[in-house]
Design a protein that fits this description.
192 residues, Rossmann fold, seven-stranded mixed sheet, 32% helix
């Protein structure tokens, strides 16, 4: 049974070849810097500090592997876009990730976008990339708790303009219903 009750940080890896030696399936969390990937991982496993978080963009610099219920990995990837220092690091992201998506253990991507902002060019490029690769994914709009009703309507319109009639999960780290929906989706992807 997969219930996200047991979560362990295993290692940080600079490339796919440095990942843990195992045949376990992986679900990768991808999005621009400071979108809330680490916070969402913490919410999924109901732990505050399993994945390190920062208010500064670009904190996660390596692929961080978290073993869930001894059955699969959640992989927290570095964000694309801008770092706290103001430098754009999509090139570094691309170099680190170029072989990752050919990983036979990758069963899906949790693709995070910030509900408070218009989708960036980097978001659009990554969306095109995963469609071209045929990688199963779930789109998650983070930080919806920070939006009022008219901002939520604007966010839904923005998502539709960029991604079309795609199903997505509006969430915040404190919204148990959306967290449960993400868990269910992850389990479906892992069990494929």
């Amino acid at each position: 049974m997969i219930d996200f009750a047991k979560a362990t940080f295993i290692k940080s890896a600079p490339t796919l070849k440095d990942r843990p030696e195992t045949s376990l399936n992986e679900i990768c969390f991808i999005g621009k810097s400071n979108v809330g990937k680490s916070s969402l991982i913490n919410a999924l496993v109901k732990r505050r500090n399993l994945a390190h978080t920062s208010s500064k963009p670009g904190y996660t610099k390596l692929l961080n592997y978290y073993l869930i219920d001894d059955k699969f990995y959640l992989v927290d990837a570095p964000g694309y876009g801008y770092t706290a220092s103001g430098s754009k690091h999509l090139d570094n992201f691309s170099k680190m990730m170029e072989t990752y998506f050919d990983n036979k253990n990758l069963k899906g991507v949790v693709f995070l976008v910030d509900s408070r902002h218009k989708m960036s060019e980097d978001d659009k490029l990554f969306y095109s990339f995963i469609l071209d690769k045929g990688i199963p994914f779930v789109l998650v709009a983070t930080k919806v708790d920070k939006l009022n009703q008219s901002e939520k309507a604007k966010m839904k319109k923005n998502v539709k303009e960029v991604f079309g009639d795609i199903e997505f999960i509006p969430t915040s780290k404190d919204d148990n219903r959306s967290i449960d929906k993400i868990k269910e989706t992850i389990v479906r992807l892992v069990l494929g």
